[in-house]
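Agenda item 2: flavin mononucleotide complex prediction
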Amino acid sequence: MTTILHLDASVRGERSLSRQLSGHFVDTWREERPRDALIQRDIGRNPPAHVSETWIAAVFTPEDQLTAAQKKLLIPSDTYIAELAKADVIVLGTPMYNYGMPSALKAWVDNVVRVDKTFSFDLGRGDFPLEPIMTGKILVMLTTHGEFGFEPGGISERRNHLVPHLRTVMHYLGVAEDHHIGIEYQEFGGERHEASIAKAMTEAAALAKRLAARA
Ligand SMILES: Cc1cc2nc3c(=O)[nH]c(=O)nc-3n(C[C@H](O)[C@H](O)[C@H](O)COP(=O)(O)O)c2cc1C
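Presented output:
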């Protein structure tokens, strides 16, 4: 059995294109493999708290010395990491906000990239002391953009701090393979936007079928 972790980061509800795209991917997968497990975590509607100095102190406290207050503070982080640990496939629907990820998604990342839980730190490794603890996960990034041209070689490639950033941090969460499909032109509307939606929906369903067949 494969476990899918379905994350959505848009602050919008039904109107959200990234939610429609990630929902389409997950629905297609479940038609192919109805018995697979699905965990849903709505980051956009229920944003994780930003990390704080007391949070950092708690994560660097040995587990057997944690106070009751520290244990309570770490419950959301522990919950997100437990969900992540179960996941074979991470399906992430997210908009681009100000050329990067929404702050709620960044807060989720800060809560899950945690020493001795998702990554290990060893200065014996030289200049690259961090290594992921989890391995072999597949990440499917389903993004939405008001503008366009963020793909490699596109006119806005240099302003794309969403997909490259996600690739960098998701490596430390055990992602070994990633895929990206995006909807563009949302702020322009019109035919280019409609064509972009149709193409992304078709590609998302095809990718879901291809990955489900391999699972
Ligand atoms: C706060 C905010 C910031 C945005 N910043 C960008 C941006 O930097 N680049 C871009 O192409 N679109 C930007 N957009 C447009 C969104 O990416 C676009 O509306 C997208 O469809 C939103 O995703 P959703 O439909 O899943 O809610 C921004 C939208 C909002 C609300």
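Discussion summary: The pocket of flavin mononucleotide is lined by residues 10, 12, 16-19, 95-99, 144-147, 186-187 (CB under 6 Å).
Owner for follow-up: CH.
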